[in-house]
Amino acid sequence: MEEKFILPQRLKTISFALTLIGLVAIIISFFTHAGDDDAKRVWANLLLNAVFFQGVAMASAFFQAATYVAYGGWHTAIKRIPEAISMFLPFTSGLLLLVLAVPMLVYGHHPLYHWTDEHVVNVDPILLAKTAYLNIPFFFSRFAFFVGILLLLTILMRRNSLAEDINGGLQYYKNNLKWASLFLLFFAIYISVTSWDWLMSLDAHWYSTMFGWYSFASFWVTGIAVITLVVVYLKKNGYLEVVNNNHLHDLGKLMFAFSIFWTYLVFCQFMLIWYANIPEETMYFRQRYDHFMWLFYSIFILNFVTPFLVLMSRDAKRKVQILIIAACIIIFGHFMDFYLMVMPGTIGTDAGFGLVEIAVPIFYIGLFIYVVSVNLSKANLVPKHHPFLQESMHHST
Amino acid sequence: MKRYLLGLFDDDEVLLNAVDSIRSQNIPIHDVVTPFAVHGLDEKLGLKYSRLHIGGFWIGLTGTAIAFSFMTWVFTADWPLVFGGKPNFSFPAFIPIMFEFTVLSASIAMTFAFLMRSHLYPGRFREPLDPRTTSHLFGMVFKINDNTSQDEKDHLSQLLREAGAVEVREREMSKHY
Q: What is the C-alpha to C-alpha distance for residues A195 and A129, in angstroms, rounded to an integer?
């Protein structure tokens, strides 16, 4: 049962190199885009990645909380992986706060959120009517409240889980059950509120009641795909002996199921707007359809058709290579899905593919690899005193 | 008359090990009857994985195609109507019905395929080999016939008892079990 992940020097070098290259490239792109309208394209990419990785880390914390509350046992053998990924949360939250707050301090308003600009709001009756919710102090207090509470609960769950490893006993599990229930309660509100704040308010004239669920589905399926990739990486490097095909099969099932769930929500949102045909709602899709049509259709193929056909059979879900391919496609596809939420409303036709589009993800991936592997190496890879460990070892699907 | 030899076990762990030891002697096990689903038994018996879901996929796809072509025919050729100023061929409006029809055809077809494959229909009564296998015993079933010598039967029951069977009995049935 004693199994420690030793951080390979090569991985450390790679992650440092990626972070550094990304950081330098971001700074360079600030200079190259300085002449543009408040370096909007750089901020848009920073926001996109900050929100995306925040979602991945939060989905991992949600994975733990949901399995605790459901008395889930199958995942115990891989429990350390979502735990380690959720420890990325303090970093993503801090970076996201920087991306939201720094432009406000520099420019006096956020270049991406036009409702933060007083001159725009004062002549816009629609935005004026929304100022009770969309104002800067309330925006940041919502951020502080929800992210703060969830961050605290995530850290508590992690700390309990590590203490359980050393001391054993059931009280850690019971405490975590309490924190997990509270986590889910706040997460339900967090996911709706923050997706309105960070993503939907980019198109401040538009609204959709499906939006919170829609972005939750996206975050959740991406989170599972990332967990799967880390599990497969560890497994390939000879760790996680107790993990077998059955656990991979379950991760594959979750990816498959929530890809369909995502499609369902995307279609529900689209279908209702298409059917009602009210200009203030359809304008959201008009923007995407006019300038991003190829992307609009291809995310549907990436996020629904491919996982649906690739992961359908039982044998496919039990093959590591197929899982890697499917997980990569899902992560890329959902990244593009968020791209489609952020870009048309902020930079529109200025969107393109250049240095900054590569720099920001590279920076985040480097940081992700470093933080997650350090947290993996901090504890035993198998939670040896977890009450459901035996169940997980005998899991069969 | 169909004749069967039945080894009865009172523990599922013992049964699983017994399946291994009998199969390692190259004796074909006809069936195993249990009061509840025993995990890992299918793999130990070497049963093939069910192909029911493959049928479900293709029939579901057929359902999608039928729903799509029917609606297209109705709304463009047979009885075109204008709804809310939308074009006659309004693909997004077809999707929910295509989805529902896919699920409906796949589930109905899979239900009937399952009933047919397991020879079940309303009113069918299957006499149990041993009524106790429906409450607390696990039965391992072997086919025997008139040519099976007493020696072979003794050898088999000896093996079963060594593997942990609490009782070995012969059973005659009027129909195939």
A: 20
CB A377 within 8 A of CB A7: yes
Of B49, B57, B92, the CB nearest to A271: B92
**Which A residues, 99 through 158, put their C-beta within 8 Å of a C-beta on chain B?**
none
The predicted structure's pLDDT at residue A396: 82
Structure tokens at A1: 């049962």
Q: Which domains does chain B have, with CATH numbers?
A: 2-49+133-173 (3.30.70), 52-117 (no CATH)
Q: Is the per-residue pLDDT at A151 higher than 90? A: yes
**Does the distance separating the beta carbons of B92 and A275 come in below 8 Å?**
yes
- Spell out which residues of chain B touch residue A271, defining contact as CB-CB under 8 Å: 92-93, 95-96
Long-range contacts of B105-111 (CB under 8 A, 24+ apart): B105/B59, B105/B60, B105/B62, B105/B63, B105/B66, B106/B56, B106/B57, B106/B59, B106/B60, B106/B63, B107/B56, B109/B55, B109/B56, B109/B59, B110/B52, B110/B53, B110/B55, B110/B56, B110/B59
For an interface test with B, which of A390, A396, A397 has the most B Cβ atoms less than 10 Å from its Cβ?
A: A396
- Rounded to two decimals, the pTM is 0.90
Please report, in angstroms and rounded to a whole number, the separation of the first and last CA atoms in chain A.
23
Q: A346, A198 in Cβ contact below 8 A?
A: no
pLDDT tens digits along A350-369: 888 888 899 999 999 999 99
Could you tell me which residues come within 8 angstroms of residue A302 by beta carbon, excluding any fewer than 6 positions away?
A329, A330, A332, A333, A336
Residue of B nearest to A269 (CA): B92
Name residues whose C-beta falls within 8 Å of residue A330's C-beta, 6 or more positions apart in sequence: A221, A222, A225, A255, A259, A302, A303, A307
Interchain CB contact of A312 with B (< 8 Å) = yes
Determine the distance in angstroms separating the CA of B139 from the nearest CA of chain A, rounded to an integer: 23
Contacts of A274 in chain B (CB under 8 A): 92
What residues have CB less than 8 Å from B33, skipping those under 6 apart? B128, B129, B130, B133, B138, B139, B141
CB pair distance less than 8 Å for A274 and B39: no
CB spacing of A271 vs B95 below 8 angstroms: yes
User: In degrees, to the nearest 5, what angle opens at C-alpha A166 toward C-alphas A165 and A171?
Assistant: 70
For residue A365 the two structure tokens come to 């991936």
Residue A1, pLDDT score: 64
Q: Pick from A212-221, A375-384, B162-171 the range whose average pLDDT is largest.
A: A212-221
ipTM of the complex: 0.80
- Tell if the CB–CB gap between A277 and B84 is shorter than 8 Å: yes
Note the pLDDT of residue B177: 61
Question: Which chain A residue shows the shortest CA-CA distance from B90?
Answer: A275
Express each pLDDT in A90-101 by its tens digit. 999 999 999 999
